[in-house]
Design goal:
The protein is of the alpha+beta class. The protein is built from three helices and nine strands. The protein has one domain: Alpha-D-Glucose-1,6-Bisphosphate, Chain A, domain 4 (2-Layer Sandwich), CATH 3.30.530.
Amino acid sequence: MLGIYENFPINVHRVIRLIATISNKTLQRTLVQCLEKINNENLRLQDVTSPSTSDCTVAFEFGIADGNIFNYLESEEMQRVLEEIRRAPLRIMDFFCALRYYKERNGKKYPLKFDYYLFRLIFNTGSVEALIFHERGPRHVPPEDLINLVIEKINQFYSRRVLKAV
């Protein structure tokens, strides 16, 4: 079933409650477009969190759940999800996120250990609950900073803040 990961962990590392001032359908469309766009970005670690290591970049790989698997959010998958949301907004959306870290030395990139996160968004009228599970990795980006990045990117789509943490 699109959007739901059947093996999502019961015990999570962080729960964040959010207030949304737009409809769930609009928010979900924006979220999917935002995550697809983030998949194509390389950011400096200090732009995402307080860096634990200097001269480090981070690349994101977001995927959306579909039963027991996650599909990488590229343009074709994004269109499939947007079509599903157009029919009816989803109640739950589960995502996998791999954060790939690279240290730069002498003009060359060297990979560091990656972080792997699962997060679930539960949509209610006017609010969203984010459940975050850190599967493994060095945790260079804490769970709350990952969600804050997503909130920030969503809010950049609009002239006012449409999503904020409670």
